[in-house]
What we know:
The complex is a heterodimer. Chain A is mainly alpha-helical.
Amino acid sequence: MNWNCAQTEERLSDFLDGLMSPEETAAFSAHAESCVDCSRLLRQIAGVVNRMQALEQVQEPHGLIRKILDSTLGASEQKQGWKRWFNWSPSLLTPRFAMGAVTVAVLLVIVFAAVGLTPGKIKRADLRPMNLARSANRQAHLAYARSAKFLNDLRVVYEIQSAIQRTQDQSPSIAPEQPQSRPDSAPPSNPQEKSQTEPRPRSQLKSGTMLAWIVVPSAASFPRSAR
Amino acid sequence: MEPDAQLVQQCLQGDGPAWEELVQRHTRRVFNLCYRFTGNSAEAEDLSQEVFLRIYKTLSSYRPAFGGFPTWLTSVTRNLLVDHYRRTRRDRMTDSLDDVMPVLEEKRSSGRMPDKLAQAAELSIQLQRALARLSPELREAVILRDLQQLEYNEIQVVLQVPEGTVKSRINRGRIELARVLDEMGVRPD
């Protein structure tokens, strides 16, 4: 098969891509080996093709896929996005969340009460650490003073009760004195009976005194305004 | 991995994740085609978005019998690139590829030396500049064949021209590219 330079140039890609018949390939190769220009052209084109095919793919810019998805699925994605904001809402109905919410509420009430804040009337200044500390200190003193006052009142009531009891105990002891004037009456031999005639309950008085000891100094340690 | 045709069917039934899979699978191919044709990364990015928007809108017109999904995708991309080329012809008269920022090539081998990497990047830029000096017909034929590595019959489908024309354009494109590189003093062999 005869082959010339024009044919070589025209069929270069067919040769490189293997699109020739065996006869054509043989004729092409024979001509390229004998012709310097065609041989050089073949090497040059083969080099370009190899380099092009070996060229690595360019990495797409970061975020391009996201942009494409936004421009195509954008509307539905956005809708799903809004829905996603409320995905947590069913969890409000679970017992665990309810228990947690109640616990937090109770804790807040305790903290507010301890700090002396009224939930509806909280000012910005109230939340300063210094004001919170002062408020908590005042609340603690008030609570202590109230409890001291309560114990003091209790002591007074107890003392009154003791005094009444003592009076009641003394009045029956006067009554037996009248029979004592009678000569035939024997002196009480029973120690229990004797004990009934004594001024009495030392133990009650003692405990009352003890209570006073506990209450009075602590109550006295506070200013009168606090009480 | 599910075939493209199956993913397309799922997309047509409103399956969002299927579309996401298609986009992730083919974005690089589309972006590279756009980048090699325009030589500009920002333009290629905008064009890639346009391509997928068009694909998304015309997905129902895809018929597997006419060729694979990548061929159809390439065909849509090529048509959009031609439109873009015609639209921006006047702007390009005053434009220069020297202003185009080079895009770093993806590293396939992690053990590559930095100087080799720099050489590859340099050659990529030179080839890009040489491609830009080809006529659009020859450029797209060379890109489709040697960069996208499509078969001749696939290129025929994409370009909608006879087989003889495809062969002729590829051959002339390669010879022209070699001549331009030679003028630029680049010896690819």
